[in-house]
Design goal:
This protein has 255 residues and is an alpha+beta fold. Helix content is 31%, strand content 19%.
Length: 255
Amino acid sequence: KHSRQLSPAPVRDLSHLRSKPGHDEAGQWSGVANQIRKRGRALACALLVSGVVAALVRVSRTTFALPDAATTRRGASAAAAAALLGHTGALPASAEEKKTYGYVPAEYVAKKVGEKVVTPNGLIYEPLDLGTDKTGIRDGPPRSGSNVVIRFAGHVDGFEGPIFDSSKYRGSRKPGKPDVVEVRLNLDPTVSNGMFEALKLMKVGAKGRFIQPPILSYNEGKANFEGDELGEAKGKIPGNSTLYYEVELVDIVKP
């Protein structure tokens, strides 16, 4: 018998289904590289922003000189002390220098009769009598918060002009009709800043006169005001008026 020989089944070429050598590895490394580039850019941006912020902080500290906590505490303590002194007595000389209207540096004092003193705010004081030559705490010059007794007269239109206010007018409404009044420096709203400045140039017993610029008047010269009802100057006194005062420091009741 003849045996039938079976021919082998044809083999299909599947080589096209296999990936090319190294294809998967290359794709993986390409993805990693992209991730690194993205993160690198983000990191660079973050570093740039951080550098700019740090530079701005350095500039702001240099320019504005922000106070540290200790400085802030010291400032708060000084303010509290000043507020307390405002109720109990005179302010220290260091506080005087930080103020404006109604305050004069400690070195401003009338030293010679007829020798005019001009304060930083423009008040012109002329001493007519220097008063005591003693140097006690009650001899003057007084400071902010001091209680003093004064005799004064305020004029418009020059020292010979009509009187709009005086200690005599005010005292006439009190028992005994004294011609003096007691005021507290820088705390009495019925007295002008110009008067405060003049009194701080004087010692007890001193007499003088001064020219007061509008900025040292009531409401800093921004509004008209009423003179005393007994005054010679009738009607409202213009706020921007230059005023003329005669004044005597009679006593310092409370330094």
